[in-house]
Write a structure and sequence with these properties.
alpha/beta, Rossmann fold, about 45% helix, about 350 residues, 3 domains, 6-stranded parallel sheet
């Protein structure tokens, strides 16, 4: 057979009408099982794939979702995407992943492409310095949208994390172990998420009357975390524990300690944030503030589906609390009081 298979070629192979093929493939109409089997067998034999663009034009519904995220290489984001895809594919949707790399101009091009191709909805981590025009663009086109992690404005539904609460819990836990000099480690740009996490850390330091706040920048990856931890320890040898901006930078910090002959959890305690899969299998296993990224992704997808199903419902904000998971990278300081 020459040319790509069409509804017409499937109908001819099955010996039925084109409308009958269309109804079978869409799961509608009162079609006998015998006819349904003939159509599905013919479609399979001809390698027929439904043209979703044509179907969307006919029905006004698009079953493709755009997910515009920042830094897909981060395992946390990859696990979130996995949760999103698992739920949306079960509901008959496809997901397109785009990475802004926190570039507002790149993001603008990507969002325009999402609108141009008529995606059925958008999951979105707003880039730093996202202009008001971007929010207005999405609102003007009426695209069902859920922002994730960064609650910049109240234009759309939002799913996020109670960041300040989590880092306050982590800092308080270290203080209860006896640490007095605790640093905040990781991150570079003052994103909304990092700002909230630092606020929680500062609050706990003040409430517990701990040593002065030390905030140490690092890119959120293992290699950068390794180098930055070595620099932090040299500049502030009094620090006996760190609350980290994410698991990846925390794993890098732990590796730096090991390479320096120090013991994570004994000489210096390390708490991560996210509970990615690598956290549990690291050497030593990482204590962390767990937000279950895969489950968080499913929650994000569910909120978008709710918005698609009921466009008129009130805007929602869903923020989850992190859970402290104690493993081997935290313990009482070797020096009493951490001094």
């Amino acid at each position: 057979m020459s040319g790509k298979p069409t509804l017409g070629t499937v109908a001819k192979r099955a010996g039925v009408s084109i409308p009958t093929v269309s109804q079978v493939l869409r799961g509608t109409g009162r079609i006998s099982e015998q006819t349904r089997d003939k159509v599905l067998r013919a479609a399979k034999d001809l390698h027929y794939v439904t043209d979703s663009r044509a179907a969307a034009m006919r029905s006004g519904e698009n079953r493709e979702i755009g997910f515009v995220i920042n830094n897909f290489r981060n395992p946390f984001n990859a696990e979130v995407v996995g949760g999103v895809v698992d739920l949306l594919e079960d509901e008959g949707y496809m997901v397109s992943i785009l990475d802004t790399r926190d570039d507002a101009r790149r993001q603008s091009r990507q969002l325009e492409a999402v609108i141009r191709h008529g995606r059925g909805g958008l999951l979105w981590v707003p880039a730093l310095d996202t202009p008001d025009e971007t929010f207005e663009l999405l609102a003007a086109h009426g695209m069902p949208t859920v922002t994730f992690l960064r609650k910049v404005r109240r234009d759309f539904d939002h799913v996020g994390i109670r960041n300040a609460e989590a880092t306050a819990i982590a800092t308080g836990y270290l203080a209860d172990l006896g640490h007095r000099n605790i640093g905040y480690f990781g991150g570079t740009d003052m994103t909304i998420v990092r700002k909230e996490r630092i606020e929680g850390y500062r609050q706990a330091v003040a409430e517990r009357q701990l040593g002065p706040c030390v905030i140490w920048d690092s890119e959120d990856n293992k290699l950068a975390g390794l180098d930055a931890m070595l620099a932090l320890h040299q500049a502030h040898p009094e620090i006996t524990a760190v609350v980290c901006n994410g698991d990846m930078v925390a794993l890098g910090a732990s590796l730096a300690l090991l390479r320096s002959g120090l013991r994570p959890g004994a000489d210096i305690s390390v708490i991560g944030f996210d509970d990615i899969q690598d956290a549990a299998v690291a050497t030593p296993p990482l204590t962390t503030m767990a937000v279950s990224p895969h489950h968080l992704g499913r929650k994000l997808a569910r909120v978008l589906l709710d918005r698609i199903e009921d466009p008129g419902m009130p805007l929602t904000v869903s923020e989850i609390s992190a859970e402290l998971i104690v493993r081997k990278t935290t313990g009482a300081p070797v020096r009493p009081g951490g001094a």
